[in-house]
Amino acid sequence: MDGGTILKTSISSNIEANKKDYIRSRLIEFNLRHFPEELKGRYEELKLHLVDEDEDIIGGIVGEFCWNWLEIHYLFVEEEHRKSGYGQLLIREAEKMAIQKKCDFIKLDTLSFQALGFYVKEGYEVYGTIENAGGHTHYYLKKDIKNRA
């Protein structure tokens, strides 16, 4: 093998949080070497949540500001609170934050039984699909927000 001798290998699906963080941080470190100087240091998590009067979480959005874009990993609203505008409230707050951070676009993905119609209504465009993802279609969407400040 190139790069030296490997003394011991171990493959496990039980990865400790610190090892997962190590792998993630090393990839980010590698990626940073390939981005323009003005984008370095622009990497942070997005965590928004909605709570009811009892402080129970009824929805939230999780993602990452990655250099010049926002990547949304999860947007969820409890079933009994759907169709009440909470998803729209969350995504628009995330978009507002992305604009403030001078992101050029937002990207996310959804499955055919999830929220494709919602995202399209919010201005997201499908740029790719994978058929038969667990018997469903997996959609990849993007919304350009450059120069919206």
Automatic annotation (TrEMBL):
Transferase as UniProt keyword: yes
GO-annotated molecular function: acyltransferase activity, transferring groups other than amino-acyl groups
Gene3D superfamilies, A to Z: 3.40.630.30
This protein's name: GNAT family acetyltransferase
Residue ranges occupied by any N-acetyltransferase domain in the UniProt entry: 9-146
Pfam family, one: Acetyltransf_1
Keywords, sorted A to Z: Transferase
